[in-house]
Design a protein that fits this description.
This protein has 7 helices and 22 strands. With about 400 residues, it is an alpha+beta fold. The chain folds into 3 domains: about 40 residues; about 120 residues; about 180 residues. The strands form 6 sheets. Strands 1, 2, 5, 6, 15, 16, 19, 20 and 21 form a 9-stranded mixed β-sheet that branches. The chain is elongated and about 75 Å long. The protein starts with a helix and ends in a 12-residue tail after the last strand.
Length: about 400
């Protein structure tokens, strides 16, 4: 920014500082600024608002140890003398040409030694949202295929991974992350042989909703953030046409920076809120029949417990960028990219599927609370849920 630009900017700052002072002083100051402005711009009308600008590399990458491909997004900031909204529609304003990279790779590091190098390849994809402010629908992304361990794609969960971006004619970039040890995760509750009891049958067609439904699992190394979703499977039949569907209910998050590997962790959620959620999301139409899940010959199965997990870098990034709810609105940005900005971290997913609709016990027969709540509970009555098990009497779809 030249001297005139700096001078005008300083006057603006002073003006913002003085606006809360005495009204007469404020008026005098504004007249003074106006006079200076007239005197100054009578000599020249050129104002340079853009300081000398240097683009910054922006990186976003989340390594998933169980994914078959690892993806990295690499962009750059930009600034022009004209309309920057117009520049944003030009692809090379925010993307590097592959020829600008001297080295672009992921290093696998164990005990401080590089044991593998995975060069990143460039790929153009064509599904970017076209209604945004940036160039679309094409965009460049970078990737490498996950190596096979025992015949399955797998990153080395004992290793750290370093991103290396070496340019020919601009500052180099690097970042390091561990990976979440997804292979150590296992659910204790629920199990495929049991269920997620969110309602208990009390007789006479009535149910009592469970206020604290427990989810229990074993902790894994390098995981700070656990995020849970309960997926409910069903089918909609309308005019003889059947369509398999699901609906995801967000259970919530569990965070802890001091978790030991193998430690049993527990998260609670309110069973009643699940049925209330279904009642608010699904259409009550007498023409629609909704068989629950699928019947495998022994039991009706309709639930999946889905866990997303993230390491410390991802958790910190999420916390810094979560909505501000307090009095203090400003907070520092977070990046773990050396020489640039962005995030290089790790996440993964674990899914326990084919969970039963009902649990069986030795006392009192089937625990049919979930089924009764779906079919005739106050939240979901009228949604026409039924059991695809042909042997379940009045609850059966047949």
């Amino acid at each position: 920014m030249n001297f005139r630009g700096k001078f005008t900017q300083r006057l603006f700052i002073i003006h913002r500082t003085i606006v809360s002072f005495d009204p007469m002083k404020r008026l005098s100051f504004l007249l003074f600024v106006l006079l200076l402005s007239v005197m100054w711009y009578s000599c020249s009308t050129e104002v340079d608002l853009n300081a000398p600008y240097k683009s910054t590399t922006v990186v976003f990458g989340l390594l998933d140890p169980a994914a078959d491909t690892q993806w990295i997004k690499i962009n750059k900031t930009f600034l022009g003398d004209g309309n920057n909204l117009e520049y944003s529609l030009i692809r090379d304003s925010s993307e590097y040409d592959f020829s600008e990279f001297e080295q672009l790779a992921i290093l696998e590091i164990v005990g401080g030694q590089v044991i593998n190098t995975f060069p990143l390849q460039e790929k153009t994809i064509h599904n970017k949202e076209v209604n945004g402010i940036f160039y679309a629908p094409e965009q460049s992304i970078y990737y490498f295929a996950t190596p096979l361990i025992n015949g399955h794609p797998r990153l080395n969960e004992a290793a750290d991974y370093q991103l290396v971006i070496d340019f020919y004619d601009r500052p180099d970039i690097s970042a390091v992350t561990n990976v979440v040890k997804q292979g150590q995760i296992s659910f204790i509750q629920p199990q495929p042989t049991s269920t997620i009891s969110m309602a208990m049958y009390t007789g006479g067609g009535d149910v009592e909703y469970v206020k604290e439904v427990n989810v229990k699992w074993t902790a894994a190394e390098n995981v700070v953030l656990y995020d849970f979703t309960l997926r409910f499977l069903y089918t909609e039949i309308l005019n003889g046409v059947a369509e398999n569907k699901f609906i995801d209910y967000k259970i919530g998050q569990y965070k802890n920076n001091n978790i030991l590997m193998g430690q049993t962790l527990t998260h609670h959620f309110d069973g009643e809120s699940f049925f209330s959620f279904l009642g608010n999301r699904l259409e009550k139409n007498p023409e629609i029949q909704r068989p629950i899940g699928f019947y495998d010959g022994t039991a009706t199965r309709c639930f999946e417990m889905r866990m997303a997990m993230g390491n410390d870098e991802l958790n910190t990034y999420n916390e810094v960028n979560s909505p501000v709810t307090g009095v203090i609105q400003e907070r520092p940005g977070y990046t773990n990219i050396d020489g640039g900005i962005g995030l290089f971290a790790s996440r993964s997913f674990f899914v326990l599927d084919s969970i039963r609709l009902m649990a069986s016990g030795n006392i009192g027969g089937p625990q049919i609370g979930n089924l009764v709540a779906l079919k005739s509970g106050n939240y979901t009555v009228g949604l026409n849920f039924c059991d695809p098990n042909p042997n379940n009497g009045e609850f059966s779809c047949n």
